[in-house]
Design goal:
It is a single chain. The protein has five helices and four strands. The protein has two domains: 88 residues; 98 residues, no CATH class. Helix content is 57%, strand content 9%. A four-stranded mixed beta sheet has the order 1-2-3-4. The radius of gyration is 21 Å and the shape is elongated. α1 crosses α2 and α2 runs parallel beside α3. By secondary structure, it is of the alpha+beta class. The chain starts with 15 loop residues before the first helix and ends in a 10-residue tail after the last helix.
Length: 215
């Protein structure tokens, strides 16, 4: 803690609480930024958030196991804290770079702005889902967000749509303001409008609910 007179730190490590705090601050900060950012920047932040969360969890688990093997319970706690912090930081960096490079080089094009018609959590989930899709190198040529003018199904626009070589991958983001009945009705309409499409597009389109964020 930058106080060599009053404290001793022979291992050179941050205290556990600081590591959990730093990792958590990275995740929370990215989450807040993702909520209030639209377009390609929102997608990149969504990718960074997704990378930070997944890497932090993975880092905590791996660090805890390795630390436990070498240092018992204390080692497990130290390893988990360190893995969580560095996982969050590295995951955010990797997510940002991977998504940003894919978008900047034109490997994937972001069409439309962020979801703004639902709750803030709904917009957050849409950006995170789009960000997650933007990390799939070479899979999507375009990712369409809710306000996109270029991709609609007779007036029913899904929250996030990725255009792949084989067709579409459509993701519906669900919020607490949407009832089960309304979702079933919307899905039915969209499925019916997809039914005339042939070949590989039909197969991919019929699996259009791939992930759910429920708030």
């Amino acid at each position: 803690m930058n106080n060599p007179i009053s404290y001793s730190d022979p291992s050179g490590n941050l205290p556990q609480w600081a590591e959990w705090l730093i990792g958590g601050a990275v995740i929370v900060g990215l989450g807040i930024a993702t909520v209030f950012t639209g377009g390609a920047a929102g997608v990149i932040l969504g990718a960074a958030f997704y990378g930070a969360v997944t890497s932090a969890i993975g880092g905590a688990l791996v660090g805890g196991v390795i630390g436990g093997i070498t240092g018992g319970w204390k080692g497990a706690l130290d390893g988990a804290a360190s893995g969580f912090m560095w996982g969050a930081i590295s995951g955010a960096i990797i997510g940002t770079l991977t998504s940003g490079i894919n978008i900047a080089t034109g490997s994937v094009q972001i069409v439309g702005s962020a979801q703004r018609t639902g709750s803030l959590f709904h917009q957050f989930a849409s950006n995170v889902q789009a960000g997650k899709m933007s990390l799939a190198v070479g899979r999507y040529s375009e990712i369409h967000l809710n306000r996109s003018k270029g991709l609609g199904i007779k007036g029913f626009r899904p929250d996030v749509s990725g255009v792949t070589k084989n067709g579409l991958r459509v993701v519906e983001v669900v919020s607490s303001s949407q009832t089960y009945a309304s979702q079933v009705a919307k899905i039915g309409r969209m499925m019916g409008q997809y039914s005339h499409i042939s070949n590989g597009l039909t197969l991919d389109a019929l699996r259009f609910i791939m992930n759910w964020f429920v708030f």
